[in-house]
Amino acid sequence: MHVFITGGTGTIGSAVVAELLGNGHTVLALARSDGSAQALQRAGATVLRGDLADLDALRSGAAQSDGVISLAFGRDYGSPDALARAVAEEGAALDALGQELLGSDRPLLTVSGTPWVPGRASTEADPPATEGPVGGRGRSVQTLLDLASRGLRSMAVRMPRTVHHEGRGGFAGLLADAARRTGVAGYPGDGTQRWPAVHARDAAVLFRLVLESAPAGTSWHAVADEGDAVRDIATVIGRRLGLPVEQVPQETFGPFGPIFAMDQPASSDHTRKALGWRPTHPSLLDDLENLQP
């Protein structure tokens, strides 16, 4: 399959590109900079220059492909307004890609987050979160999935709060960044809230499996660790960085503070049984041992 991918140089995207190329697929990847283009070419992908806001480039890439994986998301989300702009940009991009492939029965696979359900781990059957700081992402993804009835094999892989590789990435990576900045390995709330996690290479395998075989209109959970306590995550970060571990106000983490303070475990039982997905790479707490001071 010739796959068009956006976000192909990120933590998830670079692993997905390698997974696709290593399993007989070819890749056309969107690149917004010379550095990204060079990295993608070194990996073995063909490059299409443009960015997520360039809807003509997105349509062109989709038209040339047998399927699309949309992973790109804006990098500037340090304030509520910036986060809202990134969510809106992603929604417009998904709409453009979906309209280009409508009626073709080709796959369009996007990324979203695992939902949170009070009192239990969320499952693939739970609806996407459509409220809160990133609720617009859930609405955009649901709109895309609804196009399954109009000749689009639209699917979503729901990612946990931390997608990690060599101690970096996701919410745990943001905790580590904040610790370096403030001199404290801080955590919001009482620290017992749980975050799900997955290694980027395990997530990449699931993206390939969904692209190759999952039915239209479905959502899947790329969850290896159902839920690690945030205090345990902060404890490893503190030890690796040589910093004290303390509870801090959720405002320390900007627009992500309310999300960071939530208990949000997630299950992938259905995904594993239906697609035969088996995570094999290190857990989050083990991988954080690679964190460098």
Automatic annotation (TrEMBL):
Molecular-function annotations in GO: aldehyde dehydrogenase (NAD+) activity
NAD-dependent epimerase/dehydratase domain location: 3-215
Pfam families in alphabetical order: Epimerase
Region annotation Disordered: where it falls in the sequence: 113-139, 270-293
InterPro entries, per database record: Epimerase_deHydtase (IPR001509), NAD(P)-bd_dom_sf (IPR036291), NAD(P)-dependent_oxidoreduct (IPR051783)
One GO cellular component term: cytoplasm
PANTHER family: NAD(P)-BINDING DOMAIN-CONTAINING PROTEIN-RELATED (PTHR48079:SF6), PROTEIN YEEZ (PTHR48079)
Name of the protein described by the UniProt record: SDR family oxidoreductase
Organism: Streptomyces hoynatensis
